[in-house]
Every structure is written in C-alpha cells, then in structure tokens.
Amino acid sequence: MDINNKINNNKTRISLYWKCQLIGWSIVSVYWAYTVYTRDNYGIFYTLLNYVLDISIGIFLTHMYRLFALKAKWSSLPIKNLLIRLVPTIILLAVLYVLINNLKWYAYWTFIAGEGKNFFEAIIYWDPILLTGLRLMSIWILAYHLYHYYQKEVVTAKENAQLSLIAKQAQLDNLSAQLNPHFLFNSLNSIKSLVIENPNVARRAIDLLSDLLRSSLYEKDKGLISIKNELALVYDYIELEKMRFEERLQLKTNIDDEVINYKIPTLSIQLLVENAIKHGIDLKVGGGVVFLKVKKKDSDLHIIVENPGVINQHNSVGLGLKNLKKRMEIQYKGHASFSLKAKENELVCAEIIIPMHIDHEKI
C-alpha cells in the first residue's frame, strides 16, 4: 500500500512538473513568435516551427539542469551553499541559451531564407538574447528551488508537529501511569487498617475505591475533566479517608459556581487533597481541616488547597506533585503554574493557576 502511494505521489509530481514546463515556456515563447512573425516575416508555418523550437529549447536546458540538480542533491544544500552554485550555473545556462538560439537563427536564414550569414558573427551575437537568457534561467531556477524549499519546509513542519504531539502524549501517558499507582497505593493503605477492625466499613471503602478507579480510568483517556466531576472524585476520596481518620479529618470547600464546568487535568485536585492528608493531617495527632478553594480571579483559575503542617526543607517534592507540575507544563505549554508554600500558623498552601483564556483544543 505504501509503495503504491509513493508511486502515485511520484507520478503526481512529474505530471505537475511537466505541466508547469509546457505552460510556462509556451507563454514565454509567445513574445518571440510574435516578434519573428511581425518583424522578420517568418510566415505562419515557420513562426509556429520557431515557436515549438523555442519551447523545446527552454524545456531542454531547464530539464537537463533539473536532472543534474537532482543527481547532485542541490535541493538539500543550505541556502548559502546553494546560491554559490546557482550563480555560475545561471550564467552557463544563459550562454547555452544564446548559442542554441543563434544556431537556430543562423540555420533559418542560411538554409531556409537563402541569405548568406557569417557563421561566427551569428554565433557570438548576444544582445539582447543573453539578457533574455539570464532573466529566464534565473526565474526558472529560483522558482524551482523555492518550490522545493517550500515543500521541504512543509514536510518538516508536519513531521515536527507529529513528533511533538507524539512526545506530548507519551509524556502525559507516562505521568498518568505513575500517578494512578501512587493513588492506588495510598488508598489500599487506608483500607488495610479497616479490614479486621470494621469489615462493613472496609466493604464500603472497597466500593468507593472501585468507583474512584473506574472514574479515573475512564476520564484518564480524555486527559481533561470538568471541575464538577473532579470534585466528585475528591468527595469519594475524602469519604474513603474519613473511614480511617474519622473526626481527625475535615474538608471545607469554597467553589465558584461559574467555573464548575471548566475542564482541568484529571486527578489534579484529588492529588493536592491526597498530598494534604498524607503530609499534613496524618502527621498531626489531632488531625485538622483541609480547605479547598476553587475560584476565578481575573482571567485565571485558582485551585488552592490549605492544610495544617510544615514543609520539610530537606526533602524534595514528592513524585506525585512533581508529576502534577510536569503535566501542567506539558498541557498548558508553560502558561500554568504550581506552587507549594508555607503560611503563618503552620499552614501549607498548594496552588494551581490555570489561564482560562487558553483554548484546550489548540494546546
């Protein structure tokens, strides 16, 4: 199938090339046909013959150049190196154009019109044929290479776009693959402590975990999830964790209704809440409150999770938050931001800022 496509593509390119050759040189040669008919009285037959010969000369010289340029792979040269080669080539082609046309002119006036012409003088006659040859060969060669340069740039742009898309998707898939086991591991730890002491609650926890995994797996393929659906995952996760923490864990929310349907990267809020519980609530004897705020400020979406705790300056940010930050960089091309800061009264604030004016379809 691929071979057939390549053959068809080559046929298309050759067909286009010959169409351009015939049409281009036919239009250019009209002027000379008009000149020899009105000025030199060639007559209709010889005017048409001269017209065909002019077309043939132009096509012959440029096609010979094309064959040479393809064999020498000039189209793949850098522009500077290509221009160095083109200047003497254009001069050479223009000189050949003069010689062939002068031979044609000499043959007509000597063998057809019957006038005695000096061969040497006929051959070295250059004005205005040389200037015409320089102009025509320059236009043809520059047009030829500009077309190939444009085609090469289009192909390169398409390949780069495809590679960028593949790389972006691979990075996102890789980060999501790391994120889901991280979430599963922490959830199973929460259930483990309930299995013996409270089987009924453990069964409920397993149901919640099953729903969480089902939702996260289905939404993962989409890459983005509405804040409304993401919050449903968060509430299920909090219910799951409250079975272990009981009254030590509280969740307070402040959600702007106008952003409830805006889409964000899957499991981003859930990860912030999970991190707040693991590194904040779990380390406090009395537990604490996780405060979740989602609001629109100017043209940005702010997702804020606050929890009691301190930031350990000796430990680097965990894998989950590193992945979240990387996902934000890839998804929004550096326009979104993530920060984790210590606040007064031993509070830790994690914040995601996403520009809402970005079109997700064009990211």
From TrEMBL:
Signal transduction histidine kinase internal region domain mapped to chain residues: 170-249
Keywords: Kinase, Membrane, Transferase, Transmembrane, Transmembrane helix
Entry EC no(s): 2.7.13.3
Matches recorded under Pfam families: His_kinase
Keyword set includes Membrane: yes
Regions crossing the membrane: 16-37, 43-61, 82-103, 123-143
GO molecular function, one term: protein histidine kinase activity
InterPro entries: Bact_2-comp_sensor_kinase (IPR050640), HATPase_C_sf (IPR036890), Sig_transdc_His_kin_internal (IPR010559)
Entry keyword annotation includes Transport: no
Enzyme class, first EC level, given as a word: transferase
Protein name listed in UniProt: Sensor histidine kinase
Source organism per UniProt: Lutibacter litoralis
